[in-house]
Specification:
heterotrimer; B: alpha+beta; seven-stranded mixed beta sheet; five-stranded mixed beta sheet; about 30% helix; C: alpha+beta; about 25% strand; disordered N terminus
């Protein structure tokens, strides 16, 4: 539990941060640290330098911009969990955050850190996928917007380029007739998702106009369960159609198990069960 | 390091001291070696005036100094409920002035604490002292106890109008009649001047208060941690069981570290205030002013004698200078120990004495090696020589005529002091024989004809040790492997207990002294205790007996024999008459912790505690002879020989006893010739550093010739007596008598210590003129 | 914080140690800082089984800041021996256990080399610079497979990897089976768990070259035993070694032993003449600190139609791990087999236990140590019999538990001191509302919801031990306890106890007992423990022995102090000793209470003698070594209520009721704390905790991300109650309360889950009851239909 030596940078402007990253291509960004610091202590990763974004003003905060909720990368789980803006415009995000880690994690962990880390069992990646958010990033080549569907590339890897910093997440405000729910099956030790399903359903006169279902925990990175989404699209929303769609949730997904707690077979089973429960809950929440 | 001595033959073996390797390789652990995380440093601002009113103390600049954590004055202590310093010895009807750890309103001697600074390091702390502004109004001071009695003398305390703390009168027999019937009477004034104990290691303290547990640990240079703890809790508001006092390796005490001093209290207070470990280390010049001084008597005596040299009566008036405040035993030294010894080794039937304890603007005085007994011995031996001179007797002869005859159990002096056993003529004759007294006298005569002046000085003494009801506890713990730990309440700061007590216990158990570890100086692990060899050794012996008793029970079971039939010899238990089939002490120890091998009704474990307090004093005695040559032109004194014959009862380790005698003699000679704490009339210490205060130096000393007679004490189970002070008590007057004897041809009858060349030269001059 | 209840004994006094712990002011080993201290790190084997062909430390030695690198060879060359075994069984195969591996590494985490460096970061950096050439060997982790021919040998000295075979029986088992109406058979796996104390192990070894004194500050439960083992291992004289266990953050049995790492720290300190600190990381703890349980058991139980169980046959394969931990042989034998009668009449029992070496972390005592394994087996047995006979589990227990007794001789070995098993059973059923629950269960099943009710009636053995018995059974040391009660001149008291508290609360409970005995305020008593330099040889804290043995020793010493005090009081009151009465802290002549001397006055007289004669020894303190005449046997009944989600297999705890009888109670709040903690430990094993190795011996649960500790959020409020049946085995009538919860809880939960799944025909599931296991059990049962 004793990390190897590293340099520590605490820039006070984004420009400074980008410059440090340019000079230290191997550097890792510290955005809360509840994933990074344990990895350092176990010496699973030994970066030569850490760049701590905590002292850069303006990277944290939640504001409403038209039909988007804009959440700064350094906004903590706690701030999201307790934000009236979030509760009002994207309630599922606040509700799901209740299930993230524990109080200490929620006080330190940030939305930017969670997404950029692309932990295969992280909660926010699935939730942002289901919500169809966008990620804003700044790098040597300037600023760009990355649609969330293109963001998660693999386990612990994202579309971010070397030297690029995730600056904010733009979450669409839930349109009327839409309901969303996140159902999580936590690992008893780590509290990470063994399987987590986020479902967002839009209904027009009892027909499913659109359904977005995202999976975490069971796959190498958070992914959409497109088979289930398509199965439900255009269908009337009732227990049978939902069950039928849920049965197809694992289709096209590479589901991975572990040898101690939950096998591939069991997780596949859970993907089905939890998708059904998430869709059912989402529909109940439609306003 | 292992030393080849047959187990069971250890008592009296000259083992090298187990503790020395760590001391001489610089690996001792003294208080200043102790470093604790987060430790901060204390410095004390001391009064430059012997007597002054404190009008104002402004600590603001000091407080704002970088690195300073706190500045305290008496007000802060009082506000926090710190009580006045304890005074243990209080004679009936005596006056005991109140003293706070820091001065309140008035300072009364140079060196008295006025304020305290705590800072991140000791340098910053010292720097900050200069930033404390104290406005003093100087007052007239008095340093001479006789002066202090005059009506016009300055008063130290408003409630003590005559500066007298106590007056004690003792008398035995009929002194007036003795003087009426006397063939002759001599009067003289003797000054037994003031000394600075000068332990090699000055005082030091680390106070560590842990807010988490409410425990206070005080590491301090002291001779008696349990007593220090008792005194400490009387000043600061903590219960005894939450205070732990540790005296780690301590570099000498000579009495000066028996006491609880204000500085240690301030350290404890600061640590409790700050919740951090606080270290205070006294520097040498502080030690000269803030640590107790010794002796300081002015004594007028009259002695009545018969033509045949027998002493009839002695009248004594002694002014004892107690200093500005009462140290814990201050009154007892002159008031009790001194008066108790006014018969010395002599029959001397009629004695009356008055001792007046006086407060002056000087450092407080208290027990210094010998403590009252050297003052008494000095007086008596000067008296005897003086009478010899009047009668033209040989000093040896007059002693022979006045000695208490040999006794092996208990002699009560007319003043009521009980001696346990003694044979004074024996030690005198042995000393005269060793030094070759008759030949020396002839040589003296011969040399005088050549204009050279050698002198022979005798000193016969007795002293009291053990001092009941003071007591010691010892806990002996035998481990399953038969190794032994001894926890003794007595403390060693040069005495060598780690060796002698290990010898004693190893001898009892028939094991190697290397299998015995002696622990002392920690109230956290040791039973209550306070004294040394006679008491602590006896307690240890008693505890060892209890262990053997228990071990015998275990052995009896292992040998399947009746306990009564089991003998213990040379570390083996066996059935009487069958020594071949035995079990070793180690086997018994292993069994004691393995109840599987014991009968169910026999309690497991092998350890015992014993507390011991002497039923009566243990009284060592002896005769010392000093031979000196005086240069009549310069007054310089040269020590030619020194012979010491002591009787301290049974000897545990002759090497260690020799060491004690050598050290003691050097210290006694030091007072006679060199050491002197001199004040000017304003109360400034004129000899406040080792540049001015002359300690004896090895090159000034001849090699001592020592011998022993052995008169076992009936009051200790081992027959031992104390030996720590004998040399000091014997030496001073031997040297002074020798010098006076050398100057006899000039008609010099009288000299006061220290015998500096100028004093000797003046004495010769005035004698010649007169 | 001052608390002065009327009678301290039995009062719910808040723990006096807590303020310092909850304000972060405890002093744990890693809080100790010594000038010149250097840091030790241990290189551990990545292989479960490998020959060490070559160790090249030259790169590590050259690394800046590194002071030394040591290997097993270095230690052996300097005469460091093998770590001794504390409990020897007949025909046990002893194998050497050197502090650092010499020829072979035998489990993942086995120490191979050690680095000492200027700081801990450098030390860990340097580990990667030690080049070890391993020759990997086939490993064995399953203890049953390990006994089969052809299995890899962990130690060449031990054929079939068998360390010992232990056989014991009572009654006539064969006859019982011959006369039985029915027999149930089941294989039960009591899986491997980690003790998981919140503070991992740590050591700070300080060697004083000039005096030769070695001080070891160490996280342990029994400093004297550690010193003895250390003296033997290092062959260094005992009186030159001091072991201090300061504040210790939990033990649960894992800190009873002398571990290799501590020995290496001492060795390094002596070699370098500098203080050496070693602090275990959590991932090291999960590999290098002992594990517990790990039994594979086959049992058959014979029963009568009326539900009485008449016979039990048991075969157990106990996994000892790669080496013999000091008490490893004791746990699955004398602490397990003789308890197989449990609280039941069950007259005929025979058991056969194989202690087996495997390439896994050594196993030894964790909370309960043998008794949980026995209880788990028995309680599963009772429920299986109930299932066979279609009887209510409570009813089967009623028919089998012993009637109330004092000193009952069990057929196999132990004499139970006192017990009233029916009482705790009925009280528990009443508290939980058993009948109503059964009805509710029926109702809910009709709605497709599955709740289950699980019972666990247990008796356990604590207060080790009557040393004569222990030693005759193979103990290498007695199991008495020591105490010194020292009264100071002001009447304040310091108790030095050989017991050690690392969560048990002795600083409070022991002080309560002494304050009560002397009639003085609680705050006048200080409890000192954990330092061999201050305390007589003691055996320390484990097996819930502190109160029955340790506190009793203190009490006996206290009585001796009072005898002495009476003698002194007699002199002060100028009366005959026989006429002196002591009450409420005052001594007075019988019949004249108005003229009294206080305890404090007597204390002062003992040190400042005014009236007592010279022949009466001064001082006021006494020591005692208490060697109990019998063990003590706490007991009780626990009930768990769960709901199972049949779709996911998730188990939800709805209620938990614990009724225990631990004899006389010193402090109910502290006992409740022990029960709560113990129950949680037991639930943890039933539902979450498990140490898992793959077939190569790699640890799959090597961090707390995988090893699932119980969490408050997953637990119901625990409903506790107590009955009091005093023990005749000690003057205070106390028993131990440290392990009862752990022993009772595991089977209660498992029985509850299996009860919930009765409709699916599930009759047994092995722990831990992970959702997947429960889900598979349901599926398997359904497909069988």
């Amino acid at each position: 539990m004793f990390p190897a030596t590293f340099e520590y940078y605490a820039p006070t402007t984004l420009e400074e941060a980008l410059e440090v990253l340019r000079q230290n291509p191997e550097a890792k960004i510290l955005a809360g640290g509840h994933s990074l610091i344990p990895a350092l202590k176990l010496r699973l990763t030994t970066p030569p330098a850490l760049v701590d974004l905590r002292r850069i003003p303006g990277l944290a905060g939640i504001r409403l911009e038209g039909d988007h909720l804009v959440i700064g990368a350094m906004t903590t789980y706690y701030d999201i969990q307790t934000s009236d803006l979030v509760r009002q415009h994207v309630p599922v995000l606040a509700e799901a955050t209740d299930l993230v880690g524990d109080l200490q994690v929620r006080n330190w962990g940030t939305v930017g850190g969670s997404l950029a880390h692309s932990d295969p069992a992280g909660d926010y990646p699935a939730i942002m996928l289901a919500l169809g958010a966008e990620v804003r990033a700044r790098g040597p080549q300037g600023e760009r917007t990355i649609p969330i569907d293109q963001f998660f590339v693999g386990m612990f890897t994202t579309a971010l380029q070397p030297g690029e910093v995730l600056t904010e997440v733009r979450v669409p405000v839930m349109p009327p007739g839409t309901g969303a729910a996140y159902v999580k099956f936590p690992h008893p030790a780590s509290r990470y998702a063994v399987v987590g399903i986020c479902a967002v359903v839009t209904r027009e006169d009892n027909i499913c106009r659109q359904a977005r279902v995202a999976v975490t925990g069971a796959t190498l990175q958070a992914t959409r369960a497109t088979a289930a989404e398509q199965a439900l699209q255009g269908q009337p929303l009732n227990p049978d159609t939902i069950r039928a769609a849920a049965e197809r949730a694992p289709e096209g997904l590479t589901i991975v198990g572990d040898r101690v707690f939950a096998s591939e077979e069991y997780r596949t089973h859970l993907v089905r069960v939890l998708t059904r429960r998430a869709l059912t809950a989402a529909v109940e929440k439609i306003r | 390091m292992a030393q080849a001595v047959a187990p069971g033959k250890l008592m009296g073996a000259p083992l090298k001291r187990k503790e020395d390797p760590r001391f001489i390789t610089g690996r001792g652990t003294y208080v200043d070696n102790i470093k604790l995380p987060g430790m901060v440093y204390l410095a004390i601002l001391r009064s430059p005036y012997a007597h002054a009113r404190i009008k104002r103390i402004d600590t603001n600049r000091a407080r704002s100094w970088p690195g300073v954590l706190a500045v305290y004055t008496a007000e802060d202590l009082k506000r926090a409920g710190v009580k006045p310093m304890p005074v243990a010895a209080r004679l009936p009807g005596s006056k005991v002035p109140e003293r706070y750890p820091l001065a309140v309103d008035r300072v009364r001697f140079v060196g008295e604490g006025v304020a305290a600074v705590v800072a991140v390091d000791r340098y910053v702390a010292r720097d900050a002292l200069d930033l404390i502004e104290v406005e003093y109004e100087p007052l007239p001071a008095v340093v001479d106890p006789e002066e202090a009695l005059k009506p016009e003398a300055p008063r130290l305390f408003d409630d003590i109008p005559d500066n007298i703390s106590f007056r004690r009168q003792v008398s035995a027999g009929d002194v007036e009649r003795a003087f009426a019937e006397a063939d002759g009477v001599v009067r003289e004034r003797l000054i037994n001047h003031r000394l600075v104990p000068n332990a090699m290691e000055p005082r030091a303290a680390v106070a560590w208060y842990q807010p988490g547990t409410g425990d206070l640990t005080l590491y301090s240079t002291n001779q008696n941690p349990h007593i220090i703890r008792s005194w400490l809790i009387s000043v600061i508001d903590l219960p005894e069981h939450k205070v732990r006092v540790i005296a780690p390796d301590v570099g000498g005490g000579f009495g000066s570290k028996i006491f609880l001093y204000p500085d240690e209290v301030v350290a404890a207070f600061a640590s409790m205030q700050l919740g951090r470990p606080v270290k205070w280390v006294e520097d040498r010049s502080e030690n000269f002013r803030a640590t107790i001084h010794g002796r300081d008597h002015i004594t007028d005596f009259e002695v009545a004698y018969k033509r045949d040299g027998t002493l009839l009566g002695l009248k004594v008036r002694t002014y004892s200078n107690l200093g500005a405040y009462l140290s814990q035993y201050g009154q007892a030294i002159a008031g009790v120990l001194y008066t108790a010894m006014l018969h010395g080794v002599y029959r001397l039937p009629n004695v009356s004495a008055e001792v007046i304890g006086v407060l002056t603007n000087t450092t407080p005085t208290d027990a210094y090696r010998g403590a009252g007994r050297p003052e008494a011995a000095y007086l008596l031996e000067r008296v005897v020589d003086r009478v010899a001179r009047e009668l033209n007797f040989d000093p040896a002869e007059i002693r022979r005529r006045n000695f208490i005859p040999p006794f092996d159990s208990f002699y009560k002096t007319p003043l009521g002091t009980v001696y346990d056993s003694g044979n004074y003529p024996a030690t005198l004759e042995r000393a005269l024989e060793l030094v070759g007294y008759r030949q020396l006298r002839e040589e003296q005569r011969r040399l005088r004809e050549q204009g050279r002046y050698i002198g022979i000085g005798l000193s016969t003494y007795v002293e009291i040790t053990g001092l009941p009801p003071t007591m010691d506890g010892t806990h002996i713990r035998v481990h399953p492997t038969g190794k032994v730990e001894v926890f003794t309440g007595t403390h060693a700061h040069g005495q060598g207990h780690e060796t002698t007590f290990a010898q004693l216990v190893a001898d009892q158990f028939g094991i190697s002294p290397d299998d015995v570890e002696v622990h002392h100086g920690d109230t956290g692990s040791i039973p209550y205790g306070s004294r040394s060899a006679p008491v602590g050794g006896s307690a240890t012996y008693q505890a060892a007996l209890k262990v053997v008793e228990k071990a015998r029970k275990v052995a009896a079971h292992l040998l399947e024999a009746a306990e009564a039939d089991v003998e213990f010899q040379g570390g083996r238990f066996f059935v009487r008459g069958a020594p071949e089939k035995g079990v070793t002490f180690q086997q018994v120890a292993a069994a004691a912790y393995n109840p599987g091998r014991l009968p169910p009704d026999l309690e497991p474990g092998l350890e015992a505690t014993a507390f011991y307090s002497l039923p009566s004093n243990a009284c060592p005695f002896g005769a010392h002879v000093a031979v000196v040559e005086v240069d009549p032109e310069t007054g310089q004194v040269k020590l030619l020989r020194y012979v010491a014959v002591d009787d301290c009862g049974r000897v545990m380790n002759p090497l260690v006893v020799e060491g004690q005698v050598h050290g003691g003699v050097a210290q006694g000679i030091g007072q006679a010739l060199w050491e002197y704490a001199a004040y000017d009339e304003q109360g400034n210490l004129l000899t406040g550093s080792m540049l001015d205060y002359a300690l004896p130096v090895a090159s000034y000393l001849p090699s001592f010739e020592t011998a022993r007679t052995e008169t076992p004490s009936p009051v200790t189970p081992l027959g031992v007596k104390g030996v720590g002070e004998a040399g000091t008590i014997g030496a001073t007057q031997a040297v002074v008598n020798a010098v006076v004897d050398a100057l006899e041809p000039f008609g010099v009858k009288y000299l006061n210590m220290p015998l500096t060349p100028e004093r000797v030269w003046r004495a010769i001059r005035t004698a010649r003129l007169g | 914080m001052v608390q002065a209840p009327e009678r301290p004994l039995g009062a719910a006094v808040k723990r006096r140690e807590d303020p310092r712990f909850i304000t972060g002011q405890g002093t744990y080993v890693d809080n100790l800082k010594f000038v010149g201290a250097v840091y030790l790190a241990i290189l551990r084997s990545p292989y479960a089984h490998a020959r060490i062909k070559k160790i090249d430390a030259s790169r590590a030695r050259a690394h800046p800041g590194v002071l030394a690198v040591f290997t097993g060879e270095d230690l052996r060359r300097d005469g460091i021996g093998s770590i001794p075994v504390g409990w020897l069984l007949p025909d046990i195969r002893l194998v050497p256990h050197y502090p650092l591996a010499v020829d072979k590494a035998r489990y993942v985490g086995d120490g191979v080399a050690a680095v000492v460096a200027a700081d801990r970061y450098t030390a860990y950096d340097a580990l990667s610079l030690i080049d070890v050439e391993y020759e990997p060997l086939p490993a064995v982790v399953d203890q049953e497979a390990a006994t089969k021919p052809g299995a890899p040998l962990v130690h060449d000295e031990a054929p079939n990897n068998i360390c010992f075979k232990f056989v014991l029986s009572g009654g006539n088992v064969d006859q019982a089976f011959a006369e039985a109406d029915g027999v149930v058979r089941q294989k039960v796996i009591n899986h491997r768990v980690s003790g998981s104390s919140v503070e991992p192990r740590a050591a700070l070894a300080v060697f004083h070259p000039a005096t030769g004194e070695l001080t070891l500050y160490n996280t342990n439960q029994n400093p004297h035993l550690i010193r003895l083992l250390l003296a033997l291992t290092m062959n260094y004289p005992e009186h030159k070694i001091r072991v201090i266990a300061p504040d210790v953050g939990g033990g649960f049995g894992t800190k009873i032993y002398l571990y290799p790492d501590e020995v290496v720290a001492c060795y390094a300190a002596m070699k370098l003449g500098r203080p050496v600190k070693w602090v275990e990381t959590r991932s090291e703890y999960l590999r290098a600190t002992i594990h517990g349980r790990d039994h594979i058991t086959y049992f058959e139980a014979a029963y009568k139609k009326d539900g009485t169980i008449t016979g039990l046959k048991v075969t157990t394969y106990a996994n000892l791990g790669a080496y013999i931990s000091p008490f490893g042989p004791l746990i699955p034998t004398f602490l397990y087999v003789p308890m197989l009668h449990g609280p039941y009449k069950l007259p005929n029992v025979s058991a056969e236990v194989y202690g087996v070496f495997t390439n896994t972390t050594p196993a030894d005592a964790t909370r309960g140590a043998g008794r949980p394994e026995a209880t788990y087996l028995l309680e599963r047995m009772v429920d299986l019999v109930a299932r066979e006979l279609n009887m209510d589990p409570a009813e089967v227990r009623r028919r089998n538990v012993l009637e109330p007794f004092e000193n009952y001789q069990t057929p196999m070995a132990f004499v139970y001191d006192s017990g009233n098993y029916p009482a705790t059973l009925e009280r528990a059923l009443e508290l939980v509302g058993y009948r109503q629950l059964r009805e509710e269960q029926r109702r809910l099943r009709e709605q497709g919801r599955y709740i289950g009710i699980g019972l666990s009636t247990y008796v356990e053995v604590t207060g080790a031990a009557p040393s004569q018995i222990a030693v005759s059974l193979g103990a290498q040391a007695g199991l008495f306890e020591s105490a010194i009660v020292r009264v100071h001149p002001t009447g304040k008291v310091t108790l030095f106890t050989g017991s050690h508290t690392h969560g048990q609360g002795h600083e409070t409970t022991f002080a309560q007992a002494i304050a009560d005995q002397f009639g003085i305020p609680l705050d006048d008593v200080e409890v000192v423990h954990g330092d061999t330099a201050a305390i007589p040889f003691g055996l320390g804290t484990y097996g819930s022995r502190s109160t029955p043995v340790g506190l009793t020793a203190a009490y006996v010493a206290g009585q001796r102090v009072l005898e002495k005090a009476k003698r002194i009081a007699a002199h002060l009151l100028e009366a005959a000793e026989a006429d002196i009465v002591f009450e409420g802290g005052r001594f007075f002549v019988r019949g004249a209470p108005e003229r009294a001397v206080t305890f404090q006055e007597v204390a002062l007289e003992a040190y400042v003698p005014r009236k007592i004669p010279a022949d009466l020894e001064l001082g006021l303190e006494a020591s005692a070594f208490f060697n109990p005449t019998n063990f003590v046997f706490p007991f009780g009944t626990h009930v768990a209520v769960v709901e199972v989600d049949p779709e996911t297999g998730q188990v939800k705890l709805l209620r938990y009721v614990a009724v225990d009888d631990v004899g006389r109670v010193i402090n109910p709040m502290v006992v409740d704390g022990q029960v709560h903690g113990g129950v949680v430990h037991g639930l943890g094993q039933a539902l979450w905790e498990q140490v898992v190795y793959d077939e190569h011996g790699n640890l799959l649960t090597g961090t707390w991300l995988d090893y699932a500790m119980p969490k408050a959020a997953d637990l119901p409020f625990i409903e506790t109650d107590r009955l009091v049946t005093p023990s005749p085995a000690n003057p205070l009538g106390v028993k131990g309360a440290g392990e009862t919860g752990t022993i009772a809880a595991t089977p209660a939960v498992v029985n509850a889950v299996i009860d919930a799944l009765a409709p699916f025909g599930v009759r047994h599931i092995d722990m831990p009851l992970t959702p997947e296991r429960v889900w598979r059990a349901i599926r398997a049962a359904q497909t069988q239909r």
